[in-house]
Amino acid sequence: MSAQPASEDAGAELLRRFFRRYAASAAVITVQGERPMGFTATSLASVSIDPPLLSFGIATTASCWPVMERAEHFGVHLLGHDQEPLAERFARQGVDRFAAPTQWRPGPFGIPLLGGVLAWAVCRTVARVPAGDHVIVLGEPVAVDHAAGSPLVHHNGGYRPLR
User: Fold this and answer.
1) Within a 10 A sphere around the Cβ of 160, how many other Cβ atoms?
2) Which of 48, 55, 38 lies closest to 117 in space, CA to CA?
3) Do residues 116 and 80 make contact, with C-beta atoms less than 8 angstroms apart?
4) What is the pLDDT of residue 30?
5) Which helix (H) or strand (E) holds 12?
6) Taking phi first (over 0 means left), then psi (-120 to 50 degrees means alpha), and beta for anything else, what does residue 116 get?
7) How does pLDDT run across 100-143, given as a tens digit for each residue?
8) What is the 3-state secondary structure (H, E, C) of 24-92?
9) Rounded to an integer, what distance in angstroms lies between the CA atom of residue 72 and that of residue 156?
10) Which end of the chain is more exposed for a tag (fewer CB within 10 A), N or C?
């Protein structure tokens, strides 16, 4: 392993290279505006048990950000091992992510809930914390459901089933 010093210009690439080695559950965040919106997030984290809080990061340039900036509630979906196409669809720009073949329904507070996921939570937005070119959104789960199965993970720039 060779250590490389970070210049300001190289810092972003070093951070990307570092986090390619980090395995994380593939998650999709959804929110309801004039239409349902969502995106694939790899920054989902458990923050606190008391009170129960989770977080994710969203770029301020993301198409969902203007809606997320005002949303009182949002959905978090953990994808199952066979849902790589769904993860890729919600990561893609310029497509209607909720069009067929995406299966979804309105859930509590009108939040779009994706079908066939490993688990979902509808969360109340607690705080938005500016963090560079992103905002960290903190949420408190108010409704949760889950199913049996194994997760889809994001690692080294791709999706993989957990074995």
Assistant:
1) 15
2) 38
3) yes
4) 98
5) helix 8-19
6) left
7) 999 999 999 999 999 999 999 999 999 999 999 999 999 999 99
8) EECEEEEEECCCEEEEEECCCEEEEECCEEEEEEEECCCCCHHHHCCCCEEEEEECECCCHHHHHHHHC
9) 33
10) N
**Cα torsion for 127, 131, 134, 135, to the nearest 10°?**
0
Cα dihedral sign for 120, 32, 154, 102?
positive
Distance CA 92, CA 75 (A): 19
- The rounded distance, in Å, linking the Cα atoms of 65 and 134 is 10
Q: Is residue 154 helix, strand or coil? A: strand
Length of the chain: 163
Write out pLDDT tens, residues 32-83: 999 999 999 988 999 999 999 999 999 999 999 999 999 999 999 999 999 9
What contacts 150, CB < 8 A, 6 or more positions away?
A: 80, 81, 118, 161, 162
